[in-house]
Specification:
By secondary structure, the chain is an alpha/beta fold. The chain has 13 helices and 15 strands. The chain is globular, with a radius of gyration of 20 Å.
Length: 446
Amino acid sequence: MGGDTLTHNNFDFRGFDVPELKAVTLAASDSDDRGADALNGDADKTKGKGSGKKSNGKAGGAAARSGKTEKKGKNVAKESDKGKKNKVGLFTPMGLRDVTVRNRIWLPPMCTYSAFARDGKPTPFHYQHYVSRAFGGFGMIIAEATAVAPEGRISPCDLGLWEDAQIDAWRWIVDGIRNAGAVAAVQLNHAGRKASTGCFPVGYEGQSVPEEAGGWPTVAPSPIEFGNLNKPRELSVDEIHGIVGAFAAAAGRAVAAGFQAIEIHAAHGYLISEFLDPLCNERTDEYGGGLEGRARFLLEVVDAVRATVPESMPILVRVSATDWAAGGWDLDQTIVVSRMLKEHGVDLVDVSTGGIIPGVSIPVKDNYQVPFSEQVRAKAGVPTTAVGLITKPKQANKILTRGQADAVEIGRAALRDPYWPLRAANKLGVPVTEAPYQPQYIRGAF
């Protein structure tokens, strides 16, 4: 896509009729701040290597399964061609490394701002919130943005895994999710320049929380504020290295708490996303400039987490496929980085958009983010999830049968209805014996 046409009016929402991307070397991206010319057009040649680790053959194994054993090394692009034969749908199990997810209806990470003690520890509310949706039939529960450092919280009431004392507070929630048959995942985050913002228990919503009210100074790749939030301080290289270590340490605590998958938050204008976006990152050192430099922080975080968690544990990365702003982050760069992530042992890319640049126009409507997932899946050869106003069972199922994603995330609809998957099973004619009911509730099946 052209570098000066990054508004939604120039997108083709009928499926992104994008011409085949030209193959050039990654080094070329150093002279191009947007990095779009660094695209490698042969997605099938991309191999899911770990960070210095031997692949177990299951990385990236999110292609459709319907009772058949897959051969190792098949990529998603080839599997998507067989989608109609395999009848991939919402209730088809999915494998990621050594983890099997019972279906492809996932709960995305959604902040609840409910750690009222401001200690980062989850509470009985969080147990009720997450475990009820596991009982409701979701395949994977991705716990909300969980800070890797106190100053990395979005708000004072965010959850955290920055110290060992938080592990036990998570463990009973993770056990509840797993006992209900869902896969327990957690999203690790550093909020960067969007940290220390208000929330309903604190006030100051949409604003920076003053230090006297429990706020703190913020940091970013460059001293550029987000909207009317306080101006952040530019991170030093040593501080960047420290945050990489904080992500790794938090991942280790997540393993200790029993989580089965880790998601790294590189979307929505938080710290990693800020490094990626040329409109937020004006650094001239090794963490800025061309795409390779701007992606360095993300890849270092991925490598550090991959080296910390078991090889059998899937790693997901959430990205914003576009910032919806001219000259900023876009789909082309997302595809390049998604290929990099696959090479560094990432098993799935969770595709969202926006949240990076304030005041942009976003064409919010049903499925408005699904074409981005489809393109990343096809061009980067990596499993993806789709999110964004997916509310109806048939709508969600079509996304999978058309090969636009490997799983769907049900967000706001799940806040209204923790049992959305069970209703979906009924709507799609799935027999009660094959739907994700808990034995205690079968008598009340739809």
